[in-house]
Amino acid sequence: MRRELTVSHWGTYEVERDAAGEPRLVPLRDDPDPSPIGLSMLDAYRAPVRVGRPAVRAGWLERGPGSGEGRGREPFVEVGWDEALDLVAGELRRVRKRYGNAAVFAGSYGWASAGRFHHAQSQLRRFYALAGGSVTHRETYSYAAAQVLLRRIVAPMEQLETEHTDWATLAAHARLFVSFGGVPRKNAQVSPGGAVVHRVRDGLARLAAAGCRIVNFSPVRSDLEADGAAVEWIPVRPNTDTAVMLALACETVRDGRHDTVFLETHCVGFERWSRYLLGLDDGVPKDAEWAARLSGVPAGRLRALSREMSGTRTMVNAAWALQRAEHGEQPYWALVGLAAVLGQVGLPGGGFGVGYGCENGPGSRHPRWPAARVPAGMNPVGAFIPVARIADMLLHPGEPFDYDGGTHRYPEVRLVHWAGGNPFHHHQDLNRLARAWRRPETIVVHEQVWNAHAKHADIVLPATASVERDDLAFAVREPMAVAMSQVLPPYGEARDDHAILAALAARLGFGDAFTEGRGTAQWIEWLYERSREHAVRAGIAMPPYAVFREAGIARLEPAGGERPVVMLEAFRADPVAHPLATASGRIELWSDAIAGFGLDDCPGMAVWREPREWLGAPLAARFPLHLVSDQPHTKLHSQLDHAALSRANKVAGREPVRMHPDDAAARGVADGDLVRVFNDRGACLAGAVLDDGLRPGVVRLSTGAWWDPTGPGGSCAHGNPNVLTRDVGTSRLAQGCSSSSCLVQLERYSGVPPAVRAFEPPAFVRRARG
Ligand SMILES: Nc1nc2c(c(=O)[nH]1)N[C@H]1C(S)=C(S)[C@@H](COP(=O)(O)OP(=O)(O)OC[C@H]3O[C@@H](n4cnc5c(=O)[nH]c(N)nc54)[C@H](O)[C@@H]3O)O[C@H]1N2
Ligand SMILES: Nc1nc2c(c(=O)[nH]1)N[C@H]1C(S)=C(S)[C@@H](COP(=O)(O)OP(=O)(O)OC[C@H]3O[C@@H](n4cnc5c(=O)[nH]c(N)nc54)[C@H](O)[C@@H]3O)O[C@H]1N2
Ligand SMILES: [Mo]
């Protein structure tokens, strides 16, 4: 009998059916540490907050494009599919004819769902390549600063991320593992495209069992918990990691413990960077005392750690959260610089990590090979934005912005088309985004649920969930390909993104080009066969499609077995034969190119620059708490916030905000109290949880609570931290998001608690008679 499986970013699940055929999900038996996030998935995808029918904002239907001030306020009118698709096709035709394709934004950032074929962005990209193009985005919310920086100074982030030294090699060789921002198991629940085997718990346990010492610089103790190990927790002040790393490098150099040979043969720019570290030009040595004042970490501990690091095989790692901050380029450049000074880059167990624990992938030994994707085609429109500059684009059309050494202009966007992402979850300063969102003439959204993103659209097209589709799952460095089976019928009238776009393409005259005459089943087989060809070239044998479909799973085993992975091993062994793709072919501790851009907020080497919002800033007098808005452990971003697991974690019906007992006592707040978190940008309600595993002065409100601006004065009644975060680029180099640099104040909420309306669909009305 055919084995039924379904795949989500947070895990692979077997489908069991009772006598009546009712499905139930259980974790894949090969998974040693399954994530609970998926277990309440089936119920959640049957909840009434699903979008069941196409719907159009009443004001848009009556008055046509424009009238954006009604978004998020006006009721919706449900319409049939044909009418909805005709409206979207008509709008696309109108806007393209009148203003050209550069007036359409289909950058549509977001995680959507696992599954290669039904990946919403892939489908949308393909659609717009055939439709004459659209404005798109560059880089990610996850790690834009690292992406733009690292390719210039060491190697592309995408390469490094999939090339982390594996856990077994670390256990065999590393004797000291120093992490900034931990190795959070909560985050390693996910792999984009589908986690299969969760390995971080065992990886850390193995490291500890082998006697490797583990040190965690983080405002949050639980960011690094290894079974069977005493982890040293150093509660660093948020956003000061750069200072700590500079000091660790400075102390090493000052003592002459640095690896002069490695710096000579594999790096450029050490001369200049060491002058900065030692303070030869500015008179300020970036030593342990200097860093202690900024970071709150005792100077003695930093000096001792620096000695331990250079005498031991050491891995230094940084979470991505560090670079989602103002000047987020700097901690990553300093991390690479510190590893270069220690001289262990490319050795087993040594060097640097750029995200152990951020996802399940880093540290895997399973082979990396390029599985096939839906062919994207070419987008002829050149206009783009750095992904996190969406509100700037809408508010400042035609104005210039800097990015990666160039100056570009924001396009004038009239139509926004989004599928598979939730800007009303992911963007900073949501009140500002909502203002920007009034500007376009028309906003079309494919959504599964009536979240704030759907509620702020003009035309909402109901999309199926992954459990409602057959598909094919492959994720980077996961050990298996999985045949996904449809577990549930589509909710209401929901359709697959592919089907929606195929119907639009047919209306616009390129239906056959979009589908290439293939149905869904044929596309899935086509993707499998293309992937199989790639696999064979990488030395991995995969079964014929029919066998795979029946078995549900194909193991991706390379001929000759899996091999240890050591990041930058070949470059280390022979930097002449295997140069890096940087301008010099080496690690750049000084970059002529970046220096040449003349950016005051990102000069030619790793430096300390104060963010505008951190605990050392003047603003801390009014807003004395640093907000950590990390990834939620009970969901993926905003996805499944309405499911049982996430709801069970709420406090007083709101997202929990964790704070140190001293900070709570100073404000008269008790565990379980409703509190108001606020700054000049906005406010939200949240439920207090006291936690001595936080650095005092730091509060932690994880992301993902659906934005619900129905609280007092338009505040969020539910606890979305992005009403508080600042919408500013990391620097003029990368323009990434700066969600980690945010100051707030908090008080006990004594008013009448407003109801949480986040999970209620909008109001619907019948069409006005005309
Ligand atoms: N303050 C703060 N903000 C952050 C971060 C932070 O650390 N702090 N992290 C940032 C990061 S790293 C990221 S990656 C972003 C994440 O931001 P997003 O990826 O935008 O967040 P999701 O909630 O996953 O949004 C996915 C949306 O797609 C919908 N969806 C799922 N599957 C499908 C499908 O098949 N078709 C369609 N049409 N829709 C589908 C879901 O219902 C959901 O609304 O958030 C960023 N924002
Ligand atoms: N369960 C779950 N897992 C996820 C996701 C999810 O939504 N849910 N999202 C996924 C995505 S899209 C991404 S990009 C990754 C993100 O991976 P990360 O960026 O690593 O995730 P975060 O949880 O934001 O941050 C990790 C930890 O860094 C710490 N931190 C914050 N600021 C600082 C600082 O200034 N200094 C130091 N030293 N530490 C700091 C916080 O305590 C936090 O717990 O996670 C992925 N994993
Ligand atoms: Mo991300």
Summarize the structure in short.
By secondary structure, the chain is of the alpha/beta class. 29% of the residues lie in helices and 16% in strands.
Q: What is the CATH T-level topology of the largest domain? A: Dimethylsulfoxide Reductase, domain 2
Computed over alpha carbons, the radius of gyration is 26 Å
The helicity comes to 25-40%
Mean pLDDT: 97
Tell me the name of the CATH homologous superfamily of the largest domain: Dimethylsulfoxide Reductase, domain 2
Span between termini: 56 Å
Question: Strand arrangement, largest sheet?
Answer: 5-4-19-18-17-6
* The CATH architecture of the largest domain: 3-Layer(aba) Sandwich
Task: Spell out which ligands are present.
Answer: ligand MGD, molybdenum atom
Low-confidence stretches at least 5 residues in length (pLDDT < 50)? none
Number of domains: 3
Q: Would you state the CATH class of the largest domain? A: Alpha Beta
Describe the structure in your own words.
α18 links the parallel β18 and β19 (459-462). The protein folds into 3 domains: 55-140 and 371-469 and 491-524, Rossmann fold (3-Layer(aba) Sandwich); 164-367 and 574-596, Dimethylsulfoxide Reductase, domain 2 (3-Layer(aba) Sandwich), CATH 3.40.228; 618-748, Barwin-like endoglucanases. The chain starts with a strand and ends in a 22-residue tail after the last strand. The mean pLDDT is 97. It is built from 26 helices and 29 strands. The protein has 770 residues and is an alpha/beta fold. It is globular and about 80 Å long. The longest helix has 19 residues, at 81-99. Residues 142, 180-182, 184, 186-187, 189-190, 217-220, 223, 236, 238-239, 241, 319-322, 358-359, 628, 630-633, 636-637, 740 line the site of one ligand MGD.
